[in-house]
Amino acid sequence: IDRNARPCMHNPKHAEFDFWLGTWDVRPRGQPLAPPARNVITKIDEGCVVFESWTAPGSEGQSFNIYDRSRGKWFQTWVDRSGGLHEYSGVYKDNAMRYEGETPGPPLGTTRVKTRLTFFRIAPDTVRQFSERLQPDGTWAVNYDLIYTRAKPTGASPNVGKPNGGS
To answer: Could you list the mean pLDDT of each consecutive 10-residue stretch along the chain, which spans 167 residues?
Structure first.
């Protein structure tokens, strides 16, 4: 009965992105002393949706990530306070979530740019998020390269925020 009522809780495909769950300090790669952004990643809707809540000085946004069984792919929709809408689809392959899609491009977000977005599981407490955009000459250029470090608990159990309670 539970398998029918909560199918995402019983399908291992819906757990592929669980390595991203938690509360993270996020910095540009190679800048370990920079003040961190904060990103909180949770599962909502009976484990079907990986929900992201990003906050940084001058930047806020959310994403919804879901595995679509009918198409055998993951999808991400990102929205932010600047009116940005990023739409991706992809697969989990070689220990990484690999998305491709389109994001707002210059000038002022009035065009769309083909973009790749990859999340690499580096270690249990480290994730790398790497974004590239397609240039007019057909080459790829880096948008950003971020390192996520699991935030230290503040008075909570050390397993809080870890996938499956840290087990």
So the answer is: 78 96 96 90 96 94 97 97 93 97 84 96 97 96 96 65 46
Instruction: Identify residue 63 by its one-letter amino acid code.
Output: S
15: how many CB neighbours lie within 10 A of its CB? 19
Query: CB neighbours of 79 closer than 8 A, spacing ≥ 6?
Result: 61, 62, 63, 85, 86
CA atoms of 124 and 149, how far apart (whole Å): 9
For 90, phi then psi, to 5°, come to: 180, -165
Q: What does the chain come to in residues? A: 167
Q: Encoding tokens for residue 53? A: 């809540």
Q: Are 86 and 60 in contact (CB under 8 A)?
A: no
CB neighbour list of residue 122: distance below 8 Å, 6 or more residues apart:
128, 147
Whether the full predicted model's pTM is greater than 0.70, yes or no, is yes
Contact 28, 37 (CB under 8 A): no
Annotate the chain with DSSP letters as a single string: -HHHH-GGGT-GGGGTTGGG-EEEEEEETT-TTSPPEEEEEEEETTTTEEEEEEEETTEEEEEEEEEETTTTEEEEEEEETT--EEEEEEEEETTEEEEEEEEEETTTT-EEEEEEEEEEEEETTEEEEEEEEE-TTS-EEEEEEEEEEEPPPSSS-TTTTSGGGG-
